[in-house]
Design goal:
Helix content is 40%, strand content 25%. By secondary structure, the chain is of the alpha+beta class. The protein has a six-stranded antiparallel β-barrel. A three-stranded antiparallel sheet has the order 3-2-7. β10 and β11 form a beta hairpin.
Length: 281
């Protein structure tokens, strides 16, 4: 029987190996990709980073106006506010490789004032961690849609950045089914006019056609929860995804990918062993 096995396999071992490998290659490539992405996602969702920031003004300028929130409590009417993309100097971070020297963020808290006259400590939490990120699935999806469709124009003008902030406020604080800053439980005045276009109307145009579906695959969102002072404003920032900057510790990405590669190599190695066993005498 051993000799018969040898005769049967001698003339076909090479083609059998080749065919088996060809069949396995797409599967292994897909497995590697899926394993790596899953591991990166797991690292991202469990990731948090204390950081100390110092306010450095609006990144590209801002616009001033008034906002009204009738619900939930505390309610207010015609509260003076500045809108734009905040810029912060990073004073300290547990992982400087991720955030570098500066960080840009938007406000998602209209019930507290932003502390601007001292260093402020935050805890950065993945928006998929809720709590403590505190985002609903709908808010997360809508913010993702806004970034997917309009973030490429951030920095083009002070008015655009201001309109983007107004749109985010509408996403986070409007309790009605329609997103429009002219009415509802959250609304604003014009926030100034540039070339005949009000900032409010520009923000409404950004919200037009907004989706309510799956969370964006192009952006990773992080919420900055205030630690000291604790009554500071909550903020949101975003990183382009997938990005190795989402990994919290140096070398983590390598270890995760190595784990994925090791699993795939082990699977491939076991598959080759079964082929070799068939040709042994």
């Amino acid at each position: 029987m051993l000799e018969k096995k040898k005769d049967v396999c001698n003339g076909s071992t090479s083609s059998l190996n080749t065919n088996k490998e060809n069949k396995m290659r797409p599967f292994l490539n897909k497995l590697l990709s899926t394993t790596t992405i899953a591991l990166l996602t797991a690292a991202s969702t469990s990731w948090a980073d204390p950081i100390t920031l110092n306010y450095n003004g609006f990144a590209n300028g801002g616009m001033s106006g008034k906002i009204t929130k009738t619900s939930p409590s505390p309610a207010f009417t015609d509260l003076g506010a500045g809108a734009g993309q905040f810029s912060f100097n990073v004073i300290s971070s547990s992982d400087p490789a991720i955030w570098g020297n500066t960080l840009q963020a938007f406000c998602i808290d209209v019930d507290h004032w932003l502390v601007t006259n001292m260093n402020a400590e935050y805890d950065i939490v993945s928006a998929t961690n809720s709590p403590p990120a505190g985002l609903t699935d709908l808010q997360h999806a809508r913010a993702g849609w806004l970034y997917d469709n309009h973030a490429s124009d951030l920095g083009s003008s002070a008015q655009f950045d201001s309109a983007f902030q107004l749109a985010l406020w509408e996403i986070f604080f409007e309790e009605g089914t329609t997103l429009n800053l002219s009415n509802g439980t959250f609304k604003s005045n014009t926030f100034g006019t540039v070339s005949g276009i009000t900032t409010q109307s520009l923000a409404n145009s950004l919200l037009a056609g907004i989706g309510n579906g799956a969370v964006s695959s192009d952006w990773e969102f992080y919420v900055l929860n205030p630690i000291n002072p604790s009554n500071n404003q909550r903020l949101i920032t975003a990183l382009s995804a997938p990005s190795i900057q989402q990994i919290s510790e140096p070398g983590t990405l390598f270890l995760l990918i190595a784990a994925g590669l090791g699993f795939v190599f082990f699977s491939a190695h076991r598959g080759n062993d079964s082929i070799q066993t068939a040709s042994r005498t």
